[in-house]
Amino acid sequence: MGALRITKTGALYVVDCLPLCDDVCMPLSEDEQRILSQIEQQLHESDPGLAKEVATTTVYTHSARNIKWSVLGFIVGLVTIVLTLSVSFWLAFVGFAMMLTAALFFEQNLRRLGRAGMNQLSMNVRSGSLRNYDSLRRRKLWGIFPRRDETGN
Fold first, then answer.
1. Cα–Cα distance between 58 and 68 in angstroms, integer?
2. To 10 degrees, what angle do helices 89-127 and 61-84 make?
3. Segment 83-115, tens digit of pLDDT
4. Rounded Cα gap, residues 68 and 60, in angstroms
5. Phi/psi at 11 (nearest 5 deg)?
6. CA–CA dist 57, 124 (Å, integer)
7. φ and ψ of 124, to 5 deg
8. pTM of whole model > 0.70?
9. Terminus-to-terminus CA distance in the chain, angstroms?
């Protein structure tokens, strides 16, 4: 909580919330840094998969994944409406219900993500870490399906 500053501009009063302290990171002491590095080293030695997952996963990853699924659900609902409207009103209504559910799910996860999460995701996109993740996925898929050589065999 911060201190309140009230200013009068004409007939209106403006209330600002001032922070009591700056958002300055306090450095760790040498003992704390040593303990933290020991914990990190033990984690890397005991479970390297978990260490990698913890290093790459953020607080906002789950909400971002749910947003992607809700967009896909919205598109599936839209396609359902378009394809079934001439066949049956009730099937088209099911598509509309899918779209509505996906839109509400999108909005709920977007609120969970918040401004900080959106900033972090946009920084990840700009830095290329998401592109690297997608290219890693593609390489895994191409590893599953062997390529044909020039002769078509």
1. 16
2. 150
3. 999 999 999 999 999 999 999 999 988 888 777
4. 13
5. -95, 0
6. 12
7. -65, -40
8. no
9. 69
